[in-house]
Amino acid sequence: MTPTTDELSITGIECFAHHGVFDHERRDGQRFVIDLTLGLDTRLAAETDDLNNTVDYGTLVAQVKTAVETDPVDLVETLADRVARVCLSGRRVEWVQVTVHKPEAPIEAPFNDVALSIRRDAKEHP
Question: Is 65 a known active-site residue?
Answer without folding.
Answer: no
